[in-house]
Design brief:
Blueprint: E1 3-14, E2 17-28, E3 32-36, H1 43-50, E4 58-63, E5 66-67, H2 75-82, E6 85-88, H3 99-109, H4 114-127, H5 143-155, E7 161-165, H6 173-190, E8 193-197, H7 201-207, E9 210-215, E10 218-224, H8 225-230, H9 235-241
Parallel strand pairs: 3-8, 3-9, 6-7, 7-8
Antiparallel strand pairs: 1-2, 1-4, 4-5, 9-10
Helix pairs in contact: 3-4, 3-5, 4-5, 5-6
Length: 247
């Protein structure tokens, strides 16, 4: 199976400490990978590395076989790679404009035709159940509505990879169901690779093909979801799944 990401000998150091250490990791294209683990495990650091936001102190990341690029001298190449990905954070920030223009922003940066922008924005808003919100000012939205607009803004660019960092953490059950339906739909219809951080283990069970457990900046276990939950090998993962404190 094609790897969307291949990490080799990765280290990220900060304040004299290693906060991420991944000797080798491959994330399959076209699949949903859930990243779980206790607070401070390095999950968000990993996601930001994949999105070319965190630069490794050592090692290399390949994106569909091509080395990811960091640095001012290669900013154009870095931007090209980033534009193949979309990122939804736990608390999304809206631009000071309408819902329509928030969702359209990425397409405008990519210089899409105006007629195509309208069609794609309305399609994305329909997917998240907010077609009637196109002319609403984004700052009038509830938290759940804001996250759904952020999801529409992310999928409208038709990314090869969708990265989700606790994107449903503060949502009510109805919004979570909408979010999950869209994630399944985009993967099914577009073959999008999805990497999602979640503290909701039931969500990981529902959504993921593969689960990955992180602890203290390391990947301690990675397996098909059924095996991950039913037959965990690592002692810390066993404790984590059982609800015991993991240090």
């Amino acid at each position: 199976m094609t790897a969307a990401f291949q990490l080799d000998n990765i280290k990220i150091n900060a304040s004299g400490k290693t906060i991420l250490s991944v000797p080798s990791l491959s994330l399959d294209a076209g699949r949903i990978t859930a990243v779980v683990g206790p607070n401070g495990a390095g999950k968000s650091t990993l996601l930001r590395l994949l999105n070319v936001l965190n630069k490794p102190t050592e090692g290399m990341v390949r994106f569909f076989g091509e080395n990811l690029i960091w640095g001012r001298m290669s900013r154009a190449k870095q931007l090209e790679q980033q534009r193949q990905m979309s990122f939804v954070f736990q608390k999304s920030v809206m631009f000071d404009t309408t819902v329509f223009h928030n969702v359209a922003m990425g397409l405008k940066f990519r210089k899409w035709k105006k007629s195509d922008i309208n069609d794609e924005v309305m399609r994305a808003l329909e997917w998240v159940g907010l077609s009637d919100f196109r002319d609403r000012h984004a700052h009038t939205l509830s938290g759940g509505e804001t996250q759904r607009v952020a999801l529409a803004r992310s999928i409208v660019t038709q990314p090869r990879v969708l990265l989700l960092d606790e994107a449903t953490a503060n949502l009510d059950p109805e919004c979570i169901e909408i979010f999950e339906d869209v994630i399944h739909r985009i993967r099914k219809e577009s073959g999008t690779t999805i990497v999602m951080i979640t503290h909701n283990l039931q969500q990981a069970k529902r959504m993921a093909d593969i689960c990955l457990f992180m602890h203290q900046g390391e990947v301690l276990e990675m397996a098909e979801t059924e095996v991950f939950f039913d037959r965990p090998a690592a002692k810390r993962l066993q404790d984590f799944l059982a609800g015991r404190m993991v240090y």
